[in-house]
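pinned: reference chain
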Amino acid sequence: MDLAAAFEASPNPYVVMTPDLTIVGANRAYLDVTSSRHNEIIGRSLFAAFDSGPSGDAPENVRRVKASLEKARDTRQTDHLAMVSFSIARTGADGVQTFEDRLWSATHTPILNADGEVIYLLQHTMDVTDLKRTPADTAEPVSALDAIVGGAVLRRAKVVQEDNLRLERERNRLVEMFMQAPGFVAILSGPRHVFQMYNAAYQQLIGRRDVSGMAIRDALPELAGQGFYEFLDEVFATGEAYEGQESRVQLQRRPEGPLEDLYLNFIYQPIRNEDGAVVGIFVQGHDVTENVLSAERQKLMIDELNHRVKNTLATVQSIAIQTARSHADPATFAEAFQSRIMALSHTHNLLTRSHWEGADLRAILEHETEAFGPLRMSLNGPPVALEPAMALSLGMIFHELATNAAKYGALAAPEGRVMVDWTLADQRSPRLRLTWREIGGPAVSEPDRKGFGSRLIERNIRHDLAGEIDLVYAADGLIAELNVPLDRDQMR
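pinned: its structure tokens
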């Protein structure tokens, strides 16, 4: 009751607003200076009750007052307007309403609750128009001293206001640059590293969370144990900047979502006050996750390429040595060697099309037997995706089987045919079972000695593929039964 009476009796004009600038109280001095009544303004927005009239300057007058109120609300700090023009509606004796241009000095103070939240805004406003008046503006005599003092006060107010406007414009430009920076930027205040400001890039980095006014340990709890809290503490304590290069950080970018790995280039710079003491930390950096992952992928690709080149050269060397042992004549050696290298090349082409992710079994068989046409080759079986290493080994095996069939087996006779059937067995540990059956060719018998082709087939099946092969030299043609695991772990 005493506070309410003091508020009402104060000779200084006061108006109280909610954070959305709705008027909830005004004292008698405020009503008098603004020529208004309680029932006309209570419950209304400040700028609905007072709009500065129809002049061309009215929007700018309103903008400046509103900006000062919002700054006080958003920063939780008192803001001052040394001088601002704002027209007030006056109703004359004849009932006609006119707008009178007035000069005001205003102070806007946020009123906080126990939790530090703004619950009201208090405007203390003073009409300083009389400081500008000259003796010609009034019938009352004005002394030279009054004119000097009044003029000096007005000039000082103008200078202060112009400085404030200049500083405000510069601040707004800096804030705009801050908010539009391509990298992430944040300002942390105090030893608890409270988020005072951050830009859109930073908010996107942390999953669009609203962390304004929160200490970093509360705002980003998932950083615990990752070292970033400690880096900030050290920068605040020592005043020495900290820089991270391609630092791995785990952030929860979706509510209740998993932690995501990101890689950041960043710097923590200490912010000092006029006495040189550290009062905050400026955070600036870039998300370089894509660059890091691309570099890792490139390294893996180079390592894989080196591995494949070495394996391919070893295979070529083995083919050359074994082919030379079986062909004393340079001409026949060249022919056999070239055909085997071409078979290897065909499989490489298939793997290249899939970016070395693998190849389909049927595609490999078609490549190695396409010279004989579909009427002489019967291929039956489900789609089977093969790992690159398995594709290369099976490609060489099918090439040797097709070459032997063309020289000595079913494909050497006009009516001969080859039937290739395959199935997948044991889905828990899948295995490929394939049968190569030749019919309609010349009679065959088991050779006295194994040639290079037979040795290559058996070596690839047993050594490279950890599988089994059974070669049956039946009277009507060769039968080759292959059984190999498709799971890479089984092949080790």
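why pinned: The chain has three domains: 2-127, 184-287, 324-491. The longest helix spans residues 289-326.
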